Amino acid sequence: MFKENRFRGLSPIISVVILIVVVFSIAAMVGPWMYDIATTMSNQTSSDVDTKLLCQNTAYDFDTDYATFGVNWSEANNALTAKIINTGTINLHSFSFETIVNSTVIKYFNVTIDTQKTASNPLKPGQTVILEADGTTYLVGSTLNEVKILNNVCPSVYIRQEL
Questions:
Q1: For residue range 20-29, what is the model confidence (pLDDT) as tens digits?
Q2: What CA–CA distances, in Å, run from 18 to 26, 28, 69, 77, 128?
Q3: Residue 119 forms beta bridges with which residues?
Q4: DSSP state of 110
Q5: What Rg, from alpha-carbon coordinates, does the chain have?
Q6: What does the alpha-carbon distance between residue 16 and residue 19 come to, in Å, rounded to a whole number?
Q7: CA-CA distance, 140 to 133, in Å (whole number)?
Q8: Distance set, CA 25 to CA 18, 20, 29 (Å)
Q9: What is this structure's pTM?
Q10: Residues 118, 100: Cα–Cα separation, whole Å
């Protein structure tokens, strides 16, 4: 009455081998992707920690013995200068000016090449420098309210002086 079923399932050994091949195939595709994500996150975290440690030791201030609280704006000479002193323990360089004029307008100025500090010639701890803003003709006829000195070593650390 009943026919004998001639179809049999896979042998347990063959099914284990197939399962292992499938798992290794998936791992071969996903592994490099996961490795790349882990490496990227690790490098980013390491960079963030290095920056935070560096910024803890970054400090500078206006030399208040110079001009008005360390800042001098001469409309007649079209010259904006600031004298700063490195009070931290990190070499500083790549400074720029951020100014507030007429109480609302923010203007940015690079430091002139002659007075700019660079990575190869930084402002070392304890040293002072007079920085001169480049292209300050935009300030002529305006009221200068505030000056910030920014740096590229640790951009989150800056100094500001209200005038």
A1: 999 999 989 9
A2: 12, 15, 78, 83, 72
A3: none
A4: E
A5: 31
A6: 5
A7: 13
A8: 11, 9, 6
A9: 0.69
A10: 25
